[in-house]
Amino acid sequence: MDRRRLITLGGLAAGGALLPGCAAIATAGGRSGHSGHGDHVGHAGAGAGGAATGDPFTVALPVPPVLKPTAVLGGIELYDLSVRHTTTEILPGVSTPVLGYNGQFVGPTIRARYGRPALVRVRNELHHPTNVHLHGGYVPAASDGHPMDVVAPGGRRAYHYPNRQRGATLWYHDHSHHMEAEHVYRGLHGFYLIDDPAERDLRLPSGRFDVPILLRDAQLAEDGTLVFDPSPNMDRRTILANGKAQPVLAVAARRYRLRLLNASAHRIFELRLPGADLVQIGTDGGLLPAPVPRAELKLTPAERADVVVDFGRLPVGSRVVLQDTTGPVLAFDVVAEAADDSRLPNRLRALPALPPATTVRDVALSFNPGSTTFTINGQVFDAGRVDARIPLGSTEIWRITNRDTAFNIDHNFHMHLVQFRVLDRDGVPPEPGEAGLKDTVAVPPGSTVRVQATFTGYTGRYVYHCHFLEHSQIGMMAQFEVV
Ligand code: C2O
Ligand code: CU
Ligand code: CU
């Protein structure tokens, strides 16, 4: 992939080629991706973009519907997803063209079950390639949604998900190389939850008291269209919860489990819930050993946190508001008394043992101002190159360093196939909320994070990358092969 092509692609994307009516943004010639981050804390105000977002907390938070299996065949659940152009109301009364799984801006939630395989059949109704990656999934390479393994327009594809991993909040999204940032931005994102019978006795809040909340940012033009600008000028200041700006969720006075996902390509959320207690119970890959009270939850792109909030401690009629550094994101109105037979036990689920590691690898994340590319160990992604060969069954420590102190660029680090453990950040053990199973971890400028993973079960090629998608799509991605 030469630089000219990268720039062309960047320019195309910036021109809003995907959707008619998308405001074309003149950018710095495809110098896409580099942004003096830190601007994620820079937007003051209550989240209005170019378009007026209306009065806050008047629109109900939608909960993405759970997808029903088309069939169950020999113990395998069959799901059908079509990828298509559609419209949604991000702002009340304004129709916004977006992309959607089954025509939904936040795709339907797939609720899988531990030990019961799922076959997800995807039909591509777009005019360009797409694919589906199960983020956080422990799946065979052929079903991983590798960036080069795409479904042609009009094509179909079946992904096989064994669901042989702990209960967890996963998500699925497009991963077609060079288009992933725009595709995900335009709506190709949805939840994939694994229910685990081994966790049933914990009696955590379940059913309608278990609510997935997809948080992301957006730039809306005056006419309500979604502006995709991958350049440093991006101005995605409208924060959406399940696709709506500043919605409200009416809750009963009892415990809820909230599954928070940062599905933004390029924003770090720093969430607080003044007036109520945010208690973290899970990380990307499943439950923590014990609940962790959090004054603030920091989520970089693709990270998840499962929390329990006990609204039963608040009087009926009260309101608490989830806040980000950008302003209010989502209100919870306590509207009714309710019985509550759920629990928040002191012990949740023990983590798997950490086998001794046999290999240590170094991964340096850096922006190259000369070629305006984002690199791993100085190289841009090359699908023909295997960057790490890993013997099946082995355990490795990866030492990830963000070298972008000069530009002060945030990165994070995501590996396909595995749930890893964070060993330390700059030599200091992780905070308890980060000490569980993780597939994505923050790597702030100048820092080094050590993670440990065990590669079992499947051989083949998988990618690892920064999940700031404007970085990975122009190079900050590499490949390991389990052999
Ligand atoms: Cu969210 Cu390569 O993945
Ligand atoms: Cu992934
Ligand atoms: Cu990055």
Provide a quick synopsis of the model.
The protein is mostly beta strands and 483 residues long. Among the domains are: 202-337, Sandwich (Immunoglobulin-like), CATH 2.60.40; 359-482, Sandwich (Immunoglobulin-like), CATH 2.60.40. 5% of the residues lie in helices and 39% in strands.
Q: How would you explain this protein's 3D organization?
A:
- With 483 residues, this protein is mainly beta.
- Among the domains are: 136 residues, Immunoglobulin-like; 124 residues, Immunoglobulin-like, CATH 2.60.40.420.
- The chain is 5% helix and 39% strand.
- The chain contains 3 helices and 32 strands.
- The strands form 7 sheets. A 7-stranded mixed β-sheet has the order 12-11-10-14-19-16-17, with no helix packed on it.
- The N terminus is likely disordered.
- The site of one copper (II) ion has 4 residues, from strand 6.
- The site of CU-O-CU linkage (C2O) has 10 residues, from strand 6 and strand 31.
Low-confidence stretches: 1-49
Q: What compounds sit in this structure?
A: CU-O-CU linkage, copper (II) ion
Q: Bin the strand percentage.
A: 35-45%
The count of DSSP E runs of length 2 or more, i.e. the number of strands, is 32
Question: What is the end-to-end distance?
Answer: 26 Å
Would you identify the CATH H-level superfamily of the domain at 202-337?
Cupredoxins -  blue copper proteins
* Count of runs of 4 or more consecutive helical residues: 3
Q: For this entry, what is the oligomeric state of its chains?
A: single chain
Q: Briefly, what CATH class of the domain at 202-337?
A: Mainly Beta
CATH architecture field of the domain at 202-337? Sandwich
